[in-house]
Each structure stands twice: as structure tokens, then as C-alpha cells.
Amino acid sequence: MNLHNLQSTTVLHNxxxxxxxxxxxxxxxxGTQLVEAVQSAVRHGYRxxxxxxxxxxxxxVGQGIQAALQETGLSQEExxxxxxxxxxxxxxxxxxxxxxxxxAKLQLDYLxxxxxxxxVAGKYKExxxxxxxxxxxxxxxxxxxxxxxxxxxxxIMKEAEIKPMVNQVEYHPQLTQAxxxxxxxxxNIQLEAWSPLMQGQLLEQPVLKEIAERHGKSVAQVILRWxxxxxxxxxxxxxxxxxxxxxxxxxxxxxxxxxxxxIDALNRDLRVGPxxxxxxx
Length: 281
Hints:
Elements: E1 9-11, E2 17-19, E3 23-24, H1 32-43, E4 48-50, H2 58-72, E5 80-85, H3 92-106, E6 113-116, H4 124-136, E7 143-146, H5 150-159, E8 166-170, H6 178-186, E9 190-194, H7 206-215, H8 219-229, E10 233-234, H9 241-248, H10 257-264
Parallel strand pairs: 3-4, 4-5, 5-6, 6-7, 7-8, 8-9, 9-10
Antiparallel strand pairs: 1-2
């Protein structure tokens, strides 16, 4: 596994390279703070930015990207930008329209990754057909899903002509989803973690604190490194420059097999977000 720095990538099953670590912007409101956070992340080496239509902040993410490209001299091709289609738009035509709306707000010509945000029963298959069309037309470099459990993946792949490249799910030491991770790895679907730090709830966990102290790292850095060593792409959220830098500084140490086992053992199947099998949006 190539884990050298913030530009290190995994290769999706269609050959597209996706950075192992990126910036998430869930619950960050539109405005200067978000523009500056995106710009700061790119300045400090991040190449992946993850947003979604429902976050209501694509316009500021787009402004941050444009400012970052101007500041660094990078091109869009050197970044990896993800957005997601929301549940209300999960029809064929409505998904295509939602994609165009996201592109316009982000001020981009294409997305690197477009995801179905939630597996809404009876709606996500039509949305997947739209994503396949966008992919075939070269409008998006990779397509995938978010919050899909094994049975959702099996259901979509019964009819899909293109297999999802990514599945972004809640994933942290108290929700390890081992069977889902194993399934995705066996089918060459890249698992990606949202809420990797359990919205800050794990930062005082004794086992994690002890491991962090031994490595001279923060608990957040240990958790992010644990993600990466499990082969899971991760997108921690922060708007503070120092925290953005800290979260990205996870490529200069490694957890031992014993460390990994002890962190795995913290699993409690606890969610901070909705249960994909029991939600109503």
C-alpha cells in the first residue's frame, strides 16, 4: 500500500487514482471560513475535497478550489473533488439535473467522483443508471455510493452495468463494519470513511490515548492512520488550519499489528449518523 504523503493514492477498479486522505466539509456553512479551509488544505498538500448537495456549501467549496488553484498553480486535474446526489433527486432525469447543478455551484467542468448519498429503497437504481450515463459520457471520472450495506450493494449490482468504484460509509473504531469492509475489498470497491473521528467522541478514549502517547501523535492521527492501514480512504472534517495540518500528518509513523488489533477491539457497532436500513429522509 502506497502511504507516503498527502498525494498518495489508491487505484480504483477503473484505474482512476484517488487520494487516501482528503478534507470533508459536512456541516460547514457557506462562507469565508469554508473558502479559506479548502484553500488552506490544498496549500498544505491535500488533493481531495469531499462535499455533497445536501451540505448546502458547494458554492463556497468551489470558491475555495478556485482560490487554491490560483494560489498554488495547480490544475483541476491535480485535485480530486467528490459530491453526492441527495435523496430527493434520486430519479434518472433528476439525478442528471442534480449533477449539473452541483457542477455549476462548484465552478467545475467535471467531478472526479459522484456518489448516491443514501440507499433510498425503490429510488437508487434509477439514480445509478444516471450515474452510469454520466460516466460513459466522460462527465465524471468515477461513480459510487454512500451508506450502502452489503445487501444494497448486491441489489444494485444485479442490474448495474458498471460496478460502484467507492462506498463511503460511517467508519470509526466503534463502528468497524468488518463484514462490509471485507465484502468491498473482495469486490474491489474502495471503502471510504466519513465521520472517522466519531464527531470527536473518541478523543478521550483511554486505549487510543495510550497508543497515541506511545507514538508521539494525537488520538485523531492514530485513528486516521488506523483507517489507512485497513485500506480505508478517509476524509476528516476541520476548518482550523492547524487541525487540517495535523490531520494530514499521518504518513510518518505506522501502527503495529498489536495496535491495530487493540483498536479493532473497540468496536461497539455504534453510529453517530442514521442507520442506512432504518432512516426516513
